[in-house]
């Protein structure tokens, strides 16, 4: 008779244990912002063409303060702008006494790098290539180590005014400037 209460109690504990949930809900993929339009930031290399002004047309890099330095007009804020918005800002500066009716084209020649850390063979900074996912970023960094969690990673992305970090599947697209952390597997 003493076996029945012990078995019943064990089954009750097992059933209740299956109903528990963790108190912290993971961040969803949707919580990490993915801007619809690419905005410029430090490290982006830009091809700027001022039509009819070969001496102003050149390759410029957005510096750490988020600006580009051009002849005649000096430093122009670029951080947070689209290429079209930057072209208009340059046109306004040039039209203020330097060039009559300027026409400017801005294209991204090279995106700012992404960073990958954790369980990859060669962690570090790498140039961004359009269409990258967490998996392709890991491949560029020499592949996963044997201890790596290959199905997801922690990605930190700059959102307006703050950095947002969350777990994302390995097939999720990354953006220039993202920091990817490949976690270690425990089993």
From TrEMBL:
This is Sugar transporter. Residues 1-20 form the signal peptide. PANTHER family: POLYSACCHARIDE EXPORT PROTEIN GFCE-RELATED (PTHR33619). Pfam families: Poly_export (PF02563), SLBB (PF10531). Transmembrane segments: none annotated. Keywords: Signal, Sugar transport, Transport. The lineage of its organism: Bacteria, Pseudomonadati, Pseudomonadota, Alphaproteobacteria, Hyphomicrobiales. Residues 33-108 form the Polysaccharide export protein N-terminal domain.
């Amino acid at each position: 008779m003493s076996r029945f209460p012990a078995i019943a109690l064990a089954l009750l504990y097992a059933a209740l244990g299956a109903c528990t949930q963790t108190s912290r809900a993971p961040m969803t993929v949707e919580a990490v912002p993915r801007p619809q339009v690419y905005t410029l930031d430090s490290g982006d290399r830009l091809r700027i063409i001022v039509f009819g002004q070969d001496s102003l047309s050149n390759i410029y890099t957005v510096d750490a303060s988020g600006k580009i330095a051009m002849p005649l007009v000096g430093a122009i804020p670029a951080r947070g702008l689209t290429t079209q918005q930057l072209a208009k800002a340059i046109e306004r500066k040039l039209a203020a006494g330097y060039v009559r009716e300027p026409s400017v084209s801005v294209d991204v020649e090279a995106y700012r790098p992404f960073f990958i850390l954790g369980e990859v063979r060669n962690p570090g900074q790498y140039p961004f290539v359009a269409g990258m996912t967490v998996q392709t970023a890991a491949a560029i960094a020499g592949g996963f180590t044997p201890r790596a969690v290959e199905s997801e990673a922690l990605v930190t992305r700059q959102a307006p005014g703050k950095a947002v970090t969350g777990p994302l599947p390995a097939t999720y697209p990354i953006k220039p400037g993202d920091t990817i952390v490949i976690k270690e597997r425990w089993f």
